[in-house]
Amino acid sequence: MEYEIRQSGKFKYVEEGNGEPLLLLHGLFGALSNFKDLVDGFKNKYRVIIPLLPLYDLTLIETSVSGLAKYVGKFIEHQKLSDIHLLGNSLGGHIGLVYTLKHQELIRSITLTGSSGLFETGLGDTYPKRGNYDFVKQKTELTFYDPKVATKELVDEVFSIVNNRLNALKIIALARSAIRHNLGDELKEIKIPVCLIWGKNDTITPPMVAEEFHRLLPTSELHWIDKCAHAPMMEVPEEFNAILSSFLEKCKKVVL
């Protein structure tokens, strides 16, 4: 992604376009490149913002879903954002939900894709095998229905992260935090429009997770994408963007 990384205070972020804010939260191994097609598709209508989440920069005590939700809250306050369309993939969706539950008045809508928060597999204690490139490659490929989407550049990026001992410890801390911080009892409190966009072939947050989110979130709508796994915005960007665009247009008409 060729977008400028801006800095304001302690926060680093990407911002493109004008209009209602569309805030994108990446997952555990997320990178700006994950949202390239999404930014390109929405920057003409929305103020698209991607905060760089400090996944590996917080202290071990702060390295948790709640700690990252607090960071997002400070970023939103610093940027004076409101009427936000929030979108989160994987851990980013979980962080977004935790923030929204405490600050629903600032959020216009929330979109979840492959979100943790109820149940997830594939990370836990086993993912960060330092020094084992083939293992990291195999795990990265599981993110996608088509393993070819896991390019060498992407695998190299993940490998460089997990091959750092402190990063590996923080990945384990975040994965354990996500498992512990189950939101099943709280989701009924969310009253804003929710869009669930899910890959039918997701093995990390399987289809039953999407169905449970849909059941527990009273204002949610669920959209399936076939031959797609854990990162639909990367694997099938055109279909993902079409679903999201339709949802956001409906949300513009809702007076909260």
Would you mind describing this structure in some detail?
- The protein is of the alpha/beta class and 256 residues long.
- The protein has a single domain (6-120, 182-252), classed as Alpha/Beta hydrolase fold, catalytic domain (Rossmann fold), CATH 3.40.50.
- Helices cover 39% and strands 17% of the residues.
- It is built from 9 helices and 8 strands.
- The chain has helices at 36-42, 65-79, 91-102, 133-141, 152-162, 165-180, 207-216, 232-235, 237-252, and strands at residues 6-8, 11-16, 21-25, 47-51, 84-89, 107-113, 194-199, 220-225.
- The protein has an 8-stranded mixed beta sheet with strand order 1-2-4-3-5-6-7-8, sandwiched between helices.
- Helix 1 (36-42) crosses helix 9, helix 2 (65-79) crosses helix 3 and helix 4 (133-141) packs across helix 5.
- The protein is globular and about 45 Å long.
